[in-house]
Amino acid sequence: MLRTPCLALLLATTLAQADLVEANRDATVPPTRDFWLHANGRWNQANPIPADRAVYNSFAWQDDLIKKDLLAINADLLVKKDANGDQRRLADFWRSALGFEQGPTELPVGLRGVLAKLDEAKTPQALLDAAAELYAEGTGSFLGVFASQDKKDETKVALYLWQTGLSLPERAFYFSDEPATKRVRDAFPAHVAKMLGFLGYDAERAQKAGAAVLAFEVKLAEVSLPMVQLRNPDAHYHPMTWAEIDALTPGLRWEAATRRAGAPAVDRVIVGQPDFLRALARLLAETPAADVRDYLRFQAIAGYASVLNATTAKAAFEFEGIVLTGAKRQRSLEERALKMQDGALGDLLGKEYVARRFSPVQRERFRLVCENVRTAFAARIRKLEWMDADTQAWALRKLAAIKLRVGYPDKFRGYEGVEIRAEGLAQNLVNVSKWSRARTFARVGGSPEREEWGMRPYTVNAYYSPMNNEIVMPAAILAVPTYDGELLDDAVLYGFIACTIGHELTHGFDDSGRRFGPTGRLEQGWSPPTEKGFRDRCDLIVAQYDKEEPLPGIRVNGKLTLGENIADLGGVEIALDAFRTTEAYRSGRLIAGQTPLQRFFLAHAFAFAGNIRDETLRNRLLSDTHSPMPQRINVVLRNVDAFHEAFGTKPGDGMWLDPKERVKIW
């Protein structure tokens, strides 16, 4: 997943309509010292972080432009007299979202029913069953059950059990002694107490419960694997029968619990982390039942506080926004409403967006760009010295099989049967959640739905799916609403779009994606010598990023970010090769005094222009698989020979890296 904006950001109205590559550049910073700052310095200075944001970057800027389109769509649907069923669902949901702040401090009826009898849960099994019933009503906890494609049989959907249950972004938050991270942990019990106050806890009881919930989650974190250890899909595939699972967890019967959660009857389950289930059984037996009940009540209210009314939403923001991200004030009601609508009915909204903003002609144009990048990638694979012939043949088969999903899906998800009312936002969200889970659970044992996307057409992002072996490039990352054609020279086009495409294609061959074959099945397609050559190069990348220290005392986690770092580097190298086939590159024509190669790199760097608050940067360093913005440019480009040729770096420059130390993978 790239998390980068589309070409439209080159059209920022705050900048002169001349040449945007030049307009965003800070000439006072030499490109050989800090290329990210050189390329983006003027944009960063002109776009400080708004008070209601934790980050403001080119991604957020483009998203703001798209929100104007989505707001206009909703305004039109509110008055549309001949609206169809799905359009009425969108309009009614929008009404409920705009009016929720005046609602009661009251959970949806199903959740209230589960909580009303929660005091009866006094044994580990009863607590697991209660967690299952809350799950069925849209509340998460330590029960992680879901349906997904079987990683070793791509023709089937399987039932999975997975570790879950932590409220803070990553397990490191429960143990780190770094001062700012510790402040987040120290603030958590008060947040729990405030949430439980909405359920009728008095101050003393709420305070005790806050401490108990933190203590329980610390123990849960101790038995949860860190994110970096979850990157190997082979290590988290354990097909088991219910009897085998129950034998791991004395005192617990999982089949009955998952049925309460809404899962179907099956004979076989894929367990991601058996040790987590074993430890959870022990934890439920050792922890006072009252503490676990406090935890479950907190999960229920915290999951819906932001959508009950203005008071509960403000209380949720005080921790989730201010403490965790550093934001100074809440987003506007309309912005929050759009976020909720996206999560609930995003495919319907996407269908309306595409009808207005992305034509079939645009779709075909960018599909051809995708094919050009794939061709360049294939040529690079054929030249890899560290990959033997058999593995090359396997990699080329996989690359050729990757499906290119561009713009919007051929078939949008329908929402027939979902009850949406003009009042009761929280209940609307529960209704969508229950409908969606029932829909996915119904596929267990059958074939996966391969035509549905995991992103909306208006999402400014892209992704690679290893189990579908596909890249998805939504319309928003490709559409150019209005522009001066002179600005879209091929260097700009390839610096933005081709690097994005190359990034996503490379994910199919990163440290995790490479383990899946052409059909999406988890398989071993690499020879041992090739695998060793790949790992040796990966170790060099890890070492480079491990040296980066964006905040005092907190370094980039090279292992956690490895997949994205591989994709960043591969995306640039592949896009460069594709760009070299263009007339713009061959001609060498200068634009704004810049060579084609220089413009390519400057345009690519714009994807990562932006500013971020320290609180959010800290969270991302601990939990995000992406490196921070400057590192995604500077560390990558130090390894690219063409960059050094384009800007004439030399030993001693901040961007210099000795040729012997430059890493080449894809």
Which outline best applies? Answer: globular
Sequence of strands across the biggest β-sheet? 2-3-5-4
The largest pleated sheet is described as: 4 strands, mixed
Q: Can you count the beta strands?
A: 9
Percent in helix? 40-55%
What's the CATH H-level homologous superfamily of the largest domain? Collagenase (Catalytic Domain)
Mean pLDDT across residues: 94
Number of helices: 25
- Low-pLDDT regions: 3-17, 480-487
Quote the beta fraction. Answer: 5-15%
Backbone structural class:
alpha/beta
Number of domains: 2
Which CATH class of the largest domain is shown? Alpha Beta
Secondary-structure arrangement, i.e. CATH architecture of the largest domain:
3-Layer(aba) Sandwich
Whole-number radius of gyration? 25 Å
**Span from first to last CA?**
17 Å
CATH topology of the largest domain: Collagenase (Catalytic Domain)
Describe it for me?
It is a single chain. The protein is built from 25 helices and nine strands. It starts with 19 loop residues before the first helix and ends in a 19-residue tail after the last helix. With 666 residues, it is an alpha/beta fold. Helix content is 52%, strand content 6%. The chain has two domains: 7-70 and 359-410 and 452-661, Collagenase (Catalytic Domain) (3-Layer(aba) Sandwich); 109-305 and 313-330, Neutral endopeptidase, domain 2. It has a four-stranded mixed β-sheet with strand order 2-3-5-4. A three-stranded mixed β-sheet has the order 6-8-7, covered by helices on one side. Strands 1-9 form a two-stranded antiparallel ribbon. The chain is globular and about 75 Å long. It has helices at residues 20-24, 35-46, 58-79, 85-98, 109-116, 124-136, 179-197, 203-222, 242-248, 254-260, 274-286, 289-304, 310-325, 333-357, 360-382, 389-401, 425-441, 490-507, 528-546, 562-579, 583-587, 596-606, 614-623, 629-638, 641-647; strands at residues 55-57, 145-150, 153-161, 238-240, 269-271, 403-407, 463-465, 470-474, 610-612.
